[in-house]
Amino acid sequence: MSTVVILDFGAQYSQLIARRVREARVYSELLPFDAPWEEIAKRQPAAIILSGGPESTLAVDALECDPRVYTAGIPLLGICYGMQLIAKHLGGSLVPLEHSEFGPARLTLEYADAPLFLGVPRESRVWMSHGDSVTIVPPGFRALAHTARCAVAAIGDDARRTYGVQFHPEVVHTEAGSAILENFLHTLAGIAPTWRMDSWVDSAIATIREQVGDANVLCALSGGVDSAVAATLVSRAIGKQLTCIYVDTGLMRKDESAGVVAAFRNVLHLNVIHVDASARFLARLAGIEDPEEKRIRIGHEFISVFEEEAKKIAGVRFLVQGTLYPDVIESKTPGSKAGHKIKSHHNVGGLPEHMELGLVEPLRALFKDEVREVGRVLGLPSAVVERQPFPGPGLAVRIIGEVTPERLALVRAADAIVTAEIDAAAAELSPRPWQYFAVLTPVKSVGVMGDGRTYGNLVGVRAITSEDGMTADWARLPHDLLARISTRIVNEVPGINRVAYDITSKPPATVEWE
Ligand code: XMP
User: Fold this and answer.
1) C-beta neighbour count of 33 within 10 angstroms
2) What's phi and psi for 110, nearest 5 deg?
3) 8 has which bridge partners?
4) CATH 3.30.70.930 fits domain 197-385
5) Please, where in the chain does CATH 3.40.50.880 lie?
6) Does residue 219 have an active-site annotation?
7) Is 312 exposed, middle or buried (0-12, 13-18, 19+ CB in 10 A)?
8) String of b and e for 423-446 (b: at least 16 CB within 10 Å)?
9) Which of 64, 223, 420, 486 could be a cystine partner for 499, CB 3.0 to 4.6 Å?
10) Relative to the CA of 393, which ligand 1 atom is closest?
11) CA-based R_g, the chain, Å
12) Cα dist. 308→100, 215, 355, 393 in Å?
């Protein structure tokens, strides 16, 4: 499998480069900009891409990669900061621009036949974001394109197969961006577009077998797509050496735990221990209103239950975690060479550290939608693959104030109505909401039902559109649909007499109310 290594100099678009390369059916991995040459060479890269970065290559403490990158004879593409590094290290010149150039620009090609720009119109729109500019190209290079404000917007040396573009081919605003990346990957670096998820699955299974040997392995299933896909992959690799533990916190949505466990056992044939710990979790949450305290208590209880179960299984040396690529973030403090920080995974399936187990993290290199694709390749049911994100601490974050069995029953019933109505209308909703749920508030208000006065709870309904949960907008649901949801909740859930729809985006609000 040919791999492209992308060195990440901290641009906001680095992850997008990795995506675009994989969309061109070439496997790619992002490494920190200062990865030692040995780390890079270990992957036997068929090409290297240098990302953009927020810094100037002219700064005294400019971020640099291992200089062997420039001389290894491996096809090289520098994007923005990456192009400037290539110019700087191979003998070109750069100057700071009087005014930085941000946003759209017209790119004009100098040569119709430059291989990097095959099939690209002589003029096209590109996306720029830079404060310095190459003025003299390094010996052996040609200036391949310009914009009105940037005399050297692309450089190339076909003999050395080394290229640079000042603009960002990875963003959608660059019209010919995919064509330029494909020219580099397929034509210039000679990498065939053969990478597919099923070949990735085969090699992931082989890697797991090698890592684990004959040890026993544990996995905490949460019901979410990441742990389900990770567990299935590991189970394909090592079969019955894997034991999955499903800790039922009692904080799941209506009918969820039974469905999840049945799917794992009967469809995926995983070896699953179902621990009903709902009474323990409820006891730990009694009287607690503070959201952070609830999260902490749930996290601790989860680890206790998990450890108690784990102790019953002999010969365990590894723990499977469904860590994804976006969970692994590099510390990008400008100018500092700080090591990588792993974002604290706010899932209840966190590792009990003193258990001293090795980690099996087969999804570390994947994005969420790629995990879903792996799930499909592995034959996971669509209810698992398409499942909405659901917080580890479950409905506890959707009950404002104390979690009690009665309040859980209220939010669960309201939530089931929100889900059922939006699911039923999904075909007419464009874009489809990404996540939707009910929230129980402690607000009480006066109402009238039949001939009587009521004094009941307010339920909030949240439906958002989003790509990844990092930013979100409230879904413009049809009024008729909102009316059905409201009528059903008030009629069918005793104790709730008022429904409010949340019309706040993220930011400034978060997705969950907590
Ligand atoms: P917020 O509320 O932070 O949520 O805007 C962003 C996304 O993350 C989900 N979420 C969680 N997911 N463990 C998870 O795996 C958690 O503890 C957790 N808390 C929030 C939330 O549902 C939304 O999709």
Assistant:
1) 24
2) -85, -30
3) 32
4) no
5) 3-188
6) no
7) exposed
8) eebeeebeeebbbbbbbbbeeeee
9) 486
10) 17
11) 27
12) 59, 19, 11, 19
Which among 55, 150, 168, 370 is annotated as catalytic? Answer: 168
* Confidence check: pLDDT of 397 > 60: yes
Q: pTM of the predicted model, to two decimals?
A: 0.71
pLDDT digit string (tens) for 331-344?
Answer: 233 333 333 333 33
Highest CATH level, class, for 3-188 = alpha beta
Ligand 1 center from residue 281 Cα (angstroms): 20
- Under DSSP, the state recorded for 7 is E
Domain made up of 404-501: CATH architecture? 2-Layer Sandwich (3.30)
Catalytic site includes residue 168: yes
Tell whether ligand 1 has an atom less than 6 A from the beta carbon of residue 25: no
What residue ranges of the chain are covered by domains with CATH 3.40.50.620?
A: 197-385
| Residue 495, pLDDT above cutoff 90 | yes
Counting ligand 1 atoms within 8 A of each CB, the residue from 225, 511, 514 with the most, and so the one to mutate, is 511
CB 434 within 8 A of CB 394: no
Residues of the chain within CATH 3.30.300.10 domain(s) are 404-501
> Which of 176-180, 224-228, 281-285 is predicted with the least confidence, judged by mean pLDDT?
224-228
CA 45 to centroid of ligand 1, rounded, Å = 35
- Closest among 129, 127, 104, 113 to 183, alpha carbons compared: 113
